[in-house]
Design goal:
It is built from 12 helices and 7 strands. It is of the alpha+beta class and about 425 residues long. The strands form 2 sheets. Strands 2-4-5-7-6 form a 5-stranded mixed sheet, with helices on one face.
Length: about 425
């Protein structure tokens, strides 16, 4: 009950703006008896000031009430005066900036009053001083203000250059005022970002070189292992256990070979050391061949592949071998990670300037992570790693698509896993 009473009392409080308006009206009315004690010009100024304050409060209250949410209006208690005070809070921390703004504002107001005075109440003795002030204002205040504005515009342009990727652009710092400090802060931020970017590029280069060197060093002993396993397979081993061991060695060595080749390939692609052999290919025929090859090796009879190709042929300027690798990896992933008894849907369509590919399957594992993480190297749907896979398939696909200036995205709807690719029909890269 006490809480409700307090809320009702708070709602019945008179608005600060209304109190200020009432005080202004009372003071305006009290200005009439003061005619006997004050100059008429002073009385007129007071009355005009009070009238302007009332108008500004009414307009400000309507403006602030319409621009802010109910919660904010409740916070400011619907008061333009309170909002104005909070608006200026913190603006006076830098006294130099605040003082400069106030001085320019006062000088501008005086210039306006002098101009109005010279136009309405011309007096020869007073006119000289009014014109002198106006001339000094034009010669001193306006150039000073324009110079500050010009420097601010330069800082905005420099910030835009840096934001657009030109991190070597440096904003000119002149003087010791607030604008110079702002330019210095932006330059320091840019320098920190540039150092971080250089370190990241260096780290990626070292990582790529390490992967490349390790992959290359592993190829030679692995080739020997595969050759000796082939020799063992040709031997007539008496023990069935020994034969099973050879089969395991054969399977695991081939898997290791594929992993090393994928690792080597993705490292080359991320380093930009891959050249595309661009030619005009029939994407529809290429996809049908990939589907036919995997359909004969699906392994699980309950897993079906359904294709929906809009029309054939669909021509595009692409690297046929690389696009085949894209289809191979995506269909292979769908085959490994699809729920038994479900279907894999593959779509292909074309527009005036692009070819759209989509593959959809029902995941056998629960997808409880961000889809974009799958583009990272060694990221797998099967975190337990019970299925065979290197975790590089989607990383390779993404690299190939980006080399062709295409785009790729993953969409997840419940257990439905969709990979969507858009490739340009006309080559944007050098062959």
């Amino acid at each position: 009950m006490d809480t409700k009473l307090k809320k009702n009392k708070s709602k019945r409080k008179v608005s600060i703006d209304l109190i200020a308006i009432l005080i202004a009206i009372i003071l305006w009315a009290c200005a009439f008896p003061a005619d006997y004690y004050l100059h008429q010009g002073v009385i007129d100024f007071i009355q005009y000031f009070l009238l302007s304050a009332v108008v500004c409060l009414i307009v400000g209250k309507a403006l602030f009430q319409s621009n802010y949410s109910p919660k904010q209006r409740e916070f400011w208690r619907g008061s333009a005066l309170v909002y104005y005070v909070h608006l200026w809070k913190g603006r006076i921390k830098d006294r130099t900036i605040t003082l400069s703004i106030i001085i320019i504002f006062i000088l501008t107001a005086i210039a306006g009053i002098c101009g109005w005075r010279a136009a309405t109440y011309p007096d020869k003795g007073e006119m000289v001083w009014l014109i002198l002030y106006e001339v000094l204002y034009v010669l001193l205040v306006i150039p000073y203000t324009m110079s500050k504005l010009s420097r601010f515009v330069k800082i905005v342009k420099g910030t835009k250059e840096i934001a657009e990727g030109n991190i070597r652009y440096t904003i000119e710092e002149t003087g010791k005022d607030a604008l110079s400090r702002l330019a210095g802060y932006i330059n320091n931020m840019k320098l920190g970002y540039q150092n971080a970017l250089d370190n990241q590029i260096k780290g990626e280069r070292l990582k790529t070189e390490l992967i490349t060197n390790v992959s290359h060093d592993l190829k030679t002993p692995l080739t020997s292992i595969i050759n000796f396993v082939d020799l063992l397979k040709k031997e007539e081993l008496q023990s069935e256990k020994a034969q099973s061991y050879v089969q395991v060695l054969d399977r695991k060595s081939l898997r290791l070979k594929i992993l090393i080749e994928d690792l080597f390939e993705v490292s080359k692609m991320t380093s930009g050391a891959v050249e595309l052999d661009i030619e005009t290919i029939d994407v529809a025929t290429l996809l049908k061949q990939a589907i036919a090859e995997f359909s004969s090796n699906v392994g699980d009879a309950s897993l079906e592949i359904r294709e929906k190709i809009a029309q054939s042929p669909i021509y595009a300027d692409l690297d046929g071998n690389k696009i085949w690798r894209v289809f191979e990896n995506l269909i292979g992933n769908a085959k490994k990670y699809s729920l038994p008894g479900t279907r894999i849907y593959i779509y292909l369509d074309e527009d005036t300037d692009k070819v759209s590919f989509k593959i959809q399957n029902t995941a056998v594992y629960e997808i409880d992570f961000v889809a974009e993480e799958l583009f990272e190297r060694f990221k797998r749907v099967d975190e337990s790693r019970q299925t065979e896979g290197s975790g590089l398939g989607l990383a390779i696909v993404k690299s190939i698509v980006e080399l062709h200036r295409g785009d790729i995205k993953i969409e997840i709807h419940g257990d439905q896993f969709n990979v969507i690719i858009n490739l340009p029909k006309h080559s944007l890269v050098a062959g």
